[in-house]
Write a structure and sequence with these properties.
Elements (H helix, E strand, L loop, with lengths): L1 H13 L35 E9 L13 E10 L2 E6 L7 E8 L4 E9 L15 E10 L3 E6 L5 E7 L1
Antiparallel strand pairs: 1-2, 1-8, 2-3, 3-4, 4-5, 5-6, 6-7, 7-8
């Protein structure tokens, strides 16, 4: 028992910053936490880390009011680092662009938040004007090499993910 304590003490002493609970705040280069998405697991590499090809497909919809809203397909790369997802469709800040951020849990469950700026009104629910900010959520699951997620709010859309 004494030998085990000595070995544990030696192992802790060899760690450059001590045990994880004593390290203090994360360095500035660590990804910021996202409101509502939690912080669990953000510090460690995950089996999902890497680059993922993403295809988001939103079919035509015809709401009860407002007429046809045209469908669209977005294709972009999504990066996962320490369980934190980050992707961008289109140039940041432009019309018709979307930033995707979220987390993937160790079991593959994922939540993505999309923050975008509308483009052509024919593709926007309610035909809102170009340049209008919007937000929605996607929830789904990743497996080792592929996955999918569905849009939670507004129109039905499905994202598919393929590991690169």
């Amino acid at each position: 028992m004494v030998m085990r304590r000595v070995l544990c003490s030696l192992m802790l002493a060899l760690l450059p910053m001590g045990p994880a609970w004593a390290q203090g705040p994360a360095p500035a280069s660590a990804p910021a936490s996202m409101p509502g998405l939690g912080d669990a697991g953000a510090a460690l590499a995950t089996r999902f880390d890497g680059e993922w090809f993403t295809r988001l497909v939103c079919e035509d919809v015809r709401p009860a009011q407002g007429g046809l809203v045209k469908g669209y397909t977005y294709e972009f790369k999504l990066s996962i680092l320490r369980g934190v997802l980050d992707g961008q469709y289109g140039p940041p800040g432009g019309d018709g662009t979307v930033r995707y951020q979220g987390r993937v849990a160790p079991d593959g469950l994922l939540t993505l938040r999309a923050d975008g700026v509308t483009g052509n009104a024919d593709y926007n629910v309610g035909h809102v004007a170009r340049g209008t900010a919007y937000r929605y959520t996607l929830r789904g699951r990743l497996e080792a090499t592929q996955g999918s997620a569905d849009r939670v709010e507004a129109r039905p859309c499905r994202a598919s993910f393929q590991r690169l």
